[in-house]
Amino acid sequence: MIKLRPYQKNAIKAAYDAIRADKRKFLLSLATGAGKSIIIASIAKDAISKGMRVVVITNAETLCFQIAETLEKVTGLDCCIEKAAQVSKADSVLISASVQSLSAPGRAERLHTDNTLIIFDEAHMALAETYSDVLERLNAKYMIGFTATPFRADDTPMAGVWPDGVVFSYNIMQAIKDGYLTPLKGLLRSHGGWVKGDNCIEAIANDYRKGLWRKANVVFVPLLQHAEDLASAIGEGADWVSADRRQPIKEFEDGKLHTIITSTLLVTGWDCPRVDCIVLARSMDSLVMLSQSVGRGTRLYDGKDDCLVIDYSGDLINLASIMAPNEGTAKSVAGLFDAPDMDGEFDILDAWDQIQEDSDRQERDRLETLLNRRSEEMLETFDPLNIQISIDSRWGTEDVLVSDMTWDFLRTRFGLFDKDRKNLSERFAQYLIGALGNRERLGLCSYKQCKKFASLKYKGFELWTKEKAKKVMMETIENRFRPIKRYQVN
Question: Domain for residue 302, yes or no?
Answer without folding.
Answer: yes
